[in-house]
Structure formats: structure tokens, C-alpha cells
Amino acid sequence: MKNIILVGIMGCGKTTISKLLSEKLNMPVIDMDEYLEKKYQLTIPEMFDISEDYFRDRESEACLDMAQLDGYIISTGGGVVKRKENRDILKQAGTVFYIDRPLDNIVSDVETAHRPLLKDGPQKLYQLYDERHDLYLDSCHYHVDNDGTLDDIVNKIVEDIK
């Protein structure tokens, strides 16, 4: 089976949905941020402290690594779509789903202390969404609204990959 790749803004549900898909489809999951932290022995905030470009370069390398895989569920970082090369690589590496969740739901759920780009407050989330929404659409094969139950979303994704 091809890779299933989840993209979307931070807090949209990629990590949770990837774990549920893994259970349902018996496929392994790779969380790109966890992969980066393990590979480079730095946390995401530490990479951002070096520079955002430093982090984005590592993220692009991870996209190339992920493209070598087959049969995985890949949960990406929220900004992976900022580079066209990443969008193109991911589209070729599997079936890409854009998980689109209402921003008000994200703001009420997300712990901003562990999100480097949100350290200045939730208004940054709205700005990021405006900047990235079209990039997510450009990167995906399927656009999935995360405004129902998690089971509904997982079942929709499973239906779409058949």
C-alpha cells in the first residue's frame, strides 16, 4: 500500500488521526517532527533557535527520506508545505490528505508553549492559516474537514484510499 501522508496546520489532528489510522489499517506511523528530533538529537524548538531556515532544511531532508518509504502513515509538521520541493516530494511519495480543522477549535485545544511559532499568541495561528491554506490545497490529493468525530475522519480517509 502507498504511504498515507497527513498535512495541515499545527493542532489540526494529524498526530491523533495518524495513530487511529495505524490501528485501523495496521500500518506503521512516522511523525516527521519526532523523526527529525531523533535524527538530529535536537528538539524542534532548539532547531528553531538556531534558525527557521536550519529547521526547514532538515525538514526538506526528511521529506526525501520519507519518499523512500512504502506503506507508512506519515504525519508531517505544519510548515512542511512552505517549500514547493516538499509539496512535490510528498505528493509523489504517497496519497496526501489535508486535515483542515476550524481554527477556533485548535486555539481552545493546543498548548502553545510547545509550539515555537505560537509563542507570541494565538493570532499567529490565523496568520499561518492564511499564509498556508492554499499551500496545503496545492500539496494534497484529498481535502478533509476535521469538524466531526475522529472516527468519521478516519473512515473518510480509509474510504478515499480504496
UniProtKB/TrEMBL annotation:
Q: What is its main location?
A: cytoplasm
Q: Where does this protein hold Mg(2+)?
A: T15
Top-rank EC class of the record's enzyme: transferase
Q: Where in the cell is it found?
A: Cytoplasm
Tell me which GO cellular component terms the UniProt record holds. cytosol
One GO-annotated biological process of the protein = chorismate biosynthetic process
Provide the alphabetized UniProt keywords.
Amino-acid biosynthesis, Aromatic amino acid biosynthesis, ATP-binding, Cytoplasm, Kinase, Magnesium, Metal-binding, Nucleotide-binding, Transferase
Q: Pfam family example for this protein?
A: SKI
Assembly behavior: Monomer.
Family (UniProt):
Belongs to the shikimate kinase family.
Q: What does this protein do?
A: Catalyzes the specific phosphorylation of the 3-hydroxyl group of shikimic acid using ATP as a cosubstrate.
PANTHER family tied to this protein: SHIKIMATE KINASE, SHIKIMATE KINASE 1, CHLOROPLASTIC
Task: Give the protein name, as stated in the record.
Answer: Shikimate kinase
Source species = Faecalibacillus intestinalis
